[in-house]
Every structure is written in structure tokens, then in C-alpha cells.
């Protein structure tokens, strides 16, 4: 199975990656900071921003499962990464890009 993890650099994202790899899956870790994730077997690190719809669509193409562990630091300013990120993740999953859905 090919699993895509958004928010891969955060603590939850790293746990999801570890568990998926331990279970024998192929993982695409999507992050804005790809150099922060060490290489491993069956792991592809994808440098992308969840607010970039085209990059998200490319990362999801051909996947069997998509997991989101998006998070941002606390701020008093409005945060749109969750809503925009969810929109960009869900859109390609309603098309034929996600096998078997």
C-alpha cells in the first residue's frame, strides 16, 4: 500500500510514518522542509506546501491512503492552513487519482 502523510515533519506525522513503514507500507512524506526527514527504505520525501493545490495533487496521485497530520504553531492571527489544506487534499481524492476509493 502507498500511504501519503501530510504534516510529516510534526510529531504526529513522524509517528504515522514510523508506524506505516513498520507495517511494510510505502510512504510519501509531504513536508515544506524535506531536508529535515532522514531517508529510509520505502520512504519518499516530497517537498510541497499543502496550500499549493497542484503540488498536493501530484503527491496524492496513485496513492492508496492519505493521512493528514497538519499543524501550525499557536498564533493570534487567523490560520487558514487547515481549511485550505483539507480542501486541497480532499479535491484530488474525489477524482480517479486515489486508487480504490
Terminal Cα span: 13 Å
Strand content range: 15-25%
Number of domains: 1
Largest sheet: 4 strands, parallel
Overall mean pLDDT: 87
Characterise the protein shown here:
The protein has helices at residues 11-22, 53-60, 81-93, and strands at 2-6, 26-31, 43-47, 65-68. It is of the alpha/beta class and 101 residues long. The protein has a single domain, classed as NAD(P)-binding Rossmann-like Domain (Rossmann fold). The longest helix has 13 residues, at 81-93. The mean pLDDT is 87.
What is the element layout, followed by pairings?
Layout lengths: L1 E5 L4 H12 L3 E6 L11 E5 L5 H8 L4 E4 L12 H13 L8
Parallel strand pairs: 1-2, 1-4, 2-3
Helix pairs in contact: 2-3
Write a brief structural summary.
By secondary structure, the protein is an alpha/beta fold.
What labels would you give this structure?
101 residues; alpha/beta; Rossmann fold; four-stranded parallel β-sheet; 3 helices; 4 strands; 20% strand; globular
Amino acid at each position: 500500500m502507498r500511504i501519503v502523510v501530510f504534516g510529516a515533519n510534526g510529531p504526529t506525522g513522524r509517528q504515522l510514518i514510523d508506524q506505516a513503514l513498520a507495517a511494510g507500507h510505502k510512504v510519501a512524506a509531504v513536508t515544506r522542509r524535506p531536508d529535515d526527514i532522514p531517508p529510509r527504505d520505502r520512504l519518499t520525501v516530497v517537498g510541497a506546501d499543502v496550500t499549493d493545490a497542484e503540488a498536493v495533487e501530484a503527491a496524492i496521485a496513485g496513492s492508496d491512503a492519505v493521512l493528514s497530520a497538519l499543524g501550525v504553531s499557536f498564533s493570534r492571527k487567523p490560520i487558514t492552513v487547515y481549511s485550505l489544506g483539507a480542501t486541497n487534499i480532499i479535491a484530488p481524492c474525489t477524482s480517479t487519482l486515489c486508487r480504490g476509493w
